[in-house]
Amino acid sequence: MNIIIRSIEKNDRPQWAILWQGYCDFYQTEIANDVTEHTWQNFLNSNVDMNGFVAVDEKNNLMGFVHFITHDSTWRKNKVCYLEDLFVVKNARRYGIGKKLIIALADEAKINGWEGVYWHTHHDNYKSRSLYDKIAGTSDFTHYSIDFD
Asked: Which residues of 36-67 are buried (b: 16+ CB within 10 A; e: fewer)?
């Protein structure tokens, strides 16, 4: 499978929306339409530190995506990158697309002088964690959150 990793483009919206729904289904969550629209517009807004890459096959079909946010840190001089979402369509898994998306993001981080890329996943997401364990180290930190739903 010949895959190209590139930045999200405006014309990707219809295919991206299908992948986004698949991602939400995987995590058994629903994202309100206005939030999805806000997220999409942020990807296209160069004044917002939210962006994404897509994995595209030879027929220009979207096979996966990675969404990321860059931000300042009190512990670093330069920005760091939070990999927020990573998804590959089910029939394209095990072809190295997830790895290619993460490596593309790591390369982007190096080019831009960001001081690192980090992410988290569910503790029982064993299939994804088997990939992540090959690419990155784990943290000694435990994730906490306060949600206001």
From this structure: beebbebbeeeeeebbbbbbbbeeeebbbbbb
